[in-house]
Amino acid sequence: MKKIVFNGQFLARRMTGQERFAYETIVELDKLVGKEKIELVIPPNAHNIPRLQNIKIVETGRLKGIIWEQISFGLYTLRNKALSLNLCSVMPIIKPGIICIHDLSYKVNPQYCKNLYGKLSQIWHKIFYHLAWKFSPIIYTVSNYSKQQMIDIYGVKSEKVHVIENGWQHFKTVTEDDGIFQKKTRLKKNEYFFMLGSLSPNKNLEWIYGVAEKNPNEIFAVAGNIVSYGDSYKDRNLQNVELLGFVSDEEVKALMKNCKAFIFPSKFEGFGIPPLEALSVGAKIIVSNASCLPEIYGNAAVYINPYDTDVDLNELLSKTTTGEKEVLEKYSFKHSAEKIYADLCELGYDLS
To answer: DSSP 3-state assignment of 77?
Structure first.
């Protein structure tokens, strides 16, 4: 029986959405499988390594980054005749395996790739789309919306694409840190709107600026990796927009729990974890009506048009939502791990 090996390159990166998905899914799968039935193969610079009881952790190679992923990990899968599981949209070209493609943004949103890095990243990821359609025994994605796009745009067979969603339960273990309010004294509890994102065009920070400009008496706090993707906000010096940069999970939890509402105005998402985290601490969530978000959040969210900044914030806050508990019960990394376990057994692997 061939080995099953997880691609652990994501463990050398900062924890964002895809990395969180991969990390938590592996932790949950570890509770289901027998001793050393699966390996988690990691690069030498991996730093966020989970504590696992049954999945064996193997460090290999001296390379780093995508070069490690393509050469060191790729050669490891070849030498061991292993089936690789790649949960962050990239897999070894020399030996493709199971892959999770979180969305088709690089295909359907070429306008987001404005600089050289974006254009190269677009080409790189589209290579893996085509490798997956041809060689992967299973293609995972994280919403029915993304699955349908794969079927409609590329003609992928429906039975080949399996949906495994994200979760929020990791947030239970995070202890909120109110120290953020001492560091950012302009933020008063229950007196600001909060967004967690980046300058990536799909995250739509432009919507926040548009609404903030029309509502100068409201405070908008934005946390996340503020790295330019071709857009610049240096000249958008609005006094009521507080760019926090990177903040810890503990600070994020405090900001979510104490905001007027959590705003997620994305133009495009494969899933969107942050609103789940916000729901879990009782925050009201205002999300875009675009892409997969209505599928995920149903009646638990207040919806906005991500291209329209003429909104009445008081009206949005007054809207009633329902089904928050059902949404939180529906999505978990445990469910995703169970689906992967069942799929691997269906492929003939003995994981007990």
So the answer is: helix
